[in-house]
Amino acid sequence: MDKALARAVIWDMDGTLVDTAELHYRAWVQVAAEVNKPFSHADFVATFGRRNPEILRLLFGENLSDRDVAQLGDRKEELYRDLARQGVRLLPGVQPLLAALEAAGFRQAIGSSAPRRNLDLILELTGSTGYFDAVVAMEDTQRGKPDPQVFLVAAQKLAVPPAACLVIEDAVAGVQAAAAARMKCIAVTFAGHHPEHLLRQAGADRVVPNLSEVSVDLVQQLLRAAGIPGSIG
Prior knowledge:
DNA polymerase, domain 1
């Protein structure tokens, strides 16, 4: 593909590709109980989508050592992966959109705050590994969403200019990160983590109830609005 015509779609994972929020919540509840710390559903909603070091220090104290942060984060992710292995499915509309974008010549990447082992497991369990040319995980970044770093790293790995990338997200922080990266963004409300009006306020260019509402034509239309030619080589 001519690099000048390269286009990309960068996918968030949780709440966008799959809905594993309940699994994350259950894992956090157990970790908090093990260290005798409170953890409410409100705490979960307020921190969902951030990197573990940020979540742990925000909820359990800035004085946590790096070792404690690493151990608690590893424990939480072990619990999460055990739960995920019981069964995870792609959300409505995801697989047809992945296939249509691939057929149209789009490059695709995952841009997530989750650890790489989690992302690899979900892609394996859902049979979607082959659709992605790059995966950007927690280990690849130093700053979590709403900082744009995760999406900018994904664009770099795909060798596609940020302006020619569109992000698919479900969280306010993720939409803000896409806007900060100067990328177009489609937000999906299916998982129900954030209401439509907040996603629009955060900068989403389009908000849809599920990804069955998204087509290659819509993605091209949004990129053309950003000044990117619609044809794909």
